[in-house]
C-alpha cells in the first residue's frame, strides 16, 4: 500500500496559492515585489526590529544574508515587502520553500516584531522553531491579514491571543507531523477565541481538537468564511446547529476525523455555494438526506469510509461534478451505472466496495474519465475490449480483484494512459506480447506499470522493454516470467522502483542495472539468478535505499575497500555468498532499519563497528552462518520493536543485556552461557 499511496492520483483542491497568488512572486528564496517595490527607504526602527529578529535566528544556509545593518534599504532584503509609498514593512515572508529541515530557520522568535506595526502578512512556514509554543505576542500584531504557521515547528497550546487579530482573513496553523495520521503536538483547549475573527475567509488547522467539543459553535460565528480545512484534528462529534452563519462557504474539509457517533449533518446541504466537500475517512453514520435542495456547484466530493450503501437521486444529477470518491463504503455494483449525468466527471474512485460482480458495460461509456479506480471490489471475469472507449483515461486502477483472461489488445488504443495498476488479479498472457500490444500506443507516456501477482509468463524482450523510457515504477513481481533480465532495462533512466521478484528469471544480473541513477527500490528476490555481482552493478545507484535480493545464487565480488555510493536502509541478501570475511563495506552505511544476511557464509566475528551502524534496527537476521565471538549488549531504541535473529552460529561467552526495545531475540544453537 505504501507504493500505491506514493503515486496514487489525487485531484488538487482549491489551492492556498489561488487565494494569495502574489506569493508566487514573493518567496523565501528571493522575495522582491514588483507590485509593491518601495520608492522610499524602509523605516529605521523597523529595520532595527528586523535585525533584532534575525539575531535570535539560526540560519544554516545564510538565507538572510541580505539583512545587514549597513544596508541602505531593508525593503530590498530577502523576504521583505514594503508599502510603495511609506516604506513601512507590510510582509515578512520567510517560508522554507525547499521543505528541507537542514536549511530551515530555527531559534527564537524575537518580540521585536511588535515594532512592525503595519505588518499584514507573516509566513515563517516549513521552518523549525524547536517545539516552542506559538508566541502569544503574535496576537498583538493587529494589522495582520495573513498568518501562515504551516509546519513551522511550533507545539503546545494554540494561544487564545490570536483571537485579537480582528483583521485576519487567512489563517493556517499546522503541527509538524511526520505521520500523516497524527495531528502532532499542537492543540487547543477550546475555540472560543476563534469567534472573534469575523473577517476570516480561509481557515486551515491541523491540531488536536479533542478538547474542543463545541468547535462547530465557534466556527459558526465566522460569517465571512469561504474555506474551512480541519482534516486530522481528532474531532469526535458534529454539534447540531439550527442556522448556518457561514452560508457562503465554498470548501469544507473535515476529513480523517472520527465521527462514528455523528450523522452526516443536514446543514451541509444548505450550503448552496459549496464547491468542495470532503468527509472522507471520517466514519460518519447515516445517509445523505433525500431533500429537495441540492448542491448545484459541487465539483469535488469525497465520501470515502462513510458507511454508505445508497445515495439519493439528486446526488447523481450534480452535473458539475469533476472529482468523486466513494471508496470503502458498502455500495453494490449497480452504483457504477448511475453517473451518466455527470458529464464533466474526470476522477471516479469506487474502490473498496466489494461489488463481487463482473464489470458492468456502462463503466466503459464514461468517456470523460481521466482517473478510474475499482480496486478491492472482487470483480471477476474478463476486462472487456470496450475499455478502449475510455479515451481520456490517464490513470487506471483495477488492482486487487479477481479479473482473469488476457488484457484486451484494445487497451493499446488508450493513448493517454500514464498509470496502470492491474496487480493482484488472475490475468495471463505472454509478457512481451502484452507490453507491445496492450500498452503499445505510446509507451513513452507510461510512468507507472504494475502487473504484480498475476499469471503472466514468457521472457522480457530487449527491444520491448526499452520503449518504456519514462517509467518510474515497474512491478512484475509474483508472475511466471523466465529468461534473462534484459540489459536494456538499464535504459529506463527515470526508473525509481523496480520489482521483479518471485519469478523465474535466470542468468546473471545485468551490469546495466548500475546505470539506473534514479533507482531507490530494487526487488529481485526469489529468482534463479546466479553469478557475480560487482561494484559496476551499483556504480550510479546513489539513491538506493531498499534492496531485496534474497533467494538467488549470487556472489558479491567487491574490493575490500569498496565504499558503496548509496546509503541503504533495507538490505536482504539471504542465500548470497558474502563470506567468509564479514563485509567491510557495511561500515559506510549508517541508516539501517532492516538487514538480512542469513545463510551467506560469514565466519568472521562481528566487528565492533557493526553495532554502531544503527541503534534503530527493526529487523536484523545474521542466523545460519559460522559467526564466532561474543554477542555485545544491545541498546536499540527503534520506534518499532526490534527483532534480532542470531541463531545457528558459533557465538560464545555470556548472554548479552538487552534493552526493552528488543521484542524478539533468537540466540539458539550457539555456545552462550549464563541467564537473564
Structure report:
The chain has 676 residues and is mainly beta. It has a domain at 575-676: Alpha-Beta Horseshoe (Leucine-rich repeat, LRR (right-handed beta-alpha superhelix)), CATH 3.80.10. The protein has 6 helices and 40 strands. The strands form 5 sheets. The protein has a 25-stranded mixed sheet, with no helix packed on it. An 8-stranded parallel sheet has the order 18-20-22-24-26-28-30-32. The two termini are 40 Å apart. Residues 1-38 have low confidence and may be disordered.
Please specify the SSE layout and strand pairing.
Elements: H1 2-7, H2 16-19, H3 44-55, E1 57-58, E2 80-82, E3 89-93, E4 106-107, E5 121-123, E6 146-150, E7 156-157, E8 170-174, E9 186-187, E10 202-206, H4 215-219, E11 227-229, E12 251-253, E13 276-278, E14 300-302, E15 323-325, E16 347-349, E17 371-373, E18 380-381, E19 395-397, E20 402-406, E21 419-421, E22 426-430, H5 431-437, E23 448-450, E24 455-459, H6 462-465, E25 473-475, E26 480-484, E27 497-499, E28 504-507, E29 521-523, E30 528-533, E31 546-548, E32 553-556, E33 570-572, E34 594-596, E35 619-621, E36 628-629, E37 642-645, E38 650-654, E39 662-666, E40 671-673
Parallel strand pairs: 3-5, 5-6, 6-8, 7-9, 8-10, 10-11, 11-12, 12-13, 13-14, 14-15, 15-16, 16-17, 17-19, 18-20, 19-21, 20-22, 21-23, 22-24, 23-25, 24-26, 25-27, 26-28, 27-29, 28-30, 29-31, 30-32, 31-33, 33-34, 34-35, 35-37, 36-38, 37-39, 38-40
Antiparallel strand pairs: 1-4, 2-3
